[in-house]
């Protein structure tokens, strides 16, 4: 049976936003990027008492982890070695001095995140190679 369906729809880019407590910055990012077409987002914190602590499962789910600060990236690399390639752990350099959904924080996310993720694409399901 031949179908009229076009090419398969690519899997969404899975983005994990990471801060320390998962209370202010990363949940803000998750909230504002939740409805972006082609993205699936989640957030977590590096502290063990975070609202949603980062786990190996979350990192293996993600195509890319977007960390607020270098220290978050360093914790992911140390605690979850190999769960996500180093080139898939990005750092924004956003300090912990914003409230949840702060207007300036949202402006920074909207300016930085799409630019940083521009070159990140989900790996093909078949494991094929090539530029995308």
TrEMBL record:
Domain Phosphotyrosine protein phosphatase I residue range list: 13-115
This protein's name: Phosphotyrosine protein phosphatase
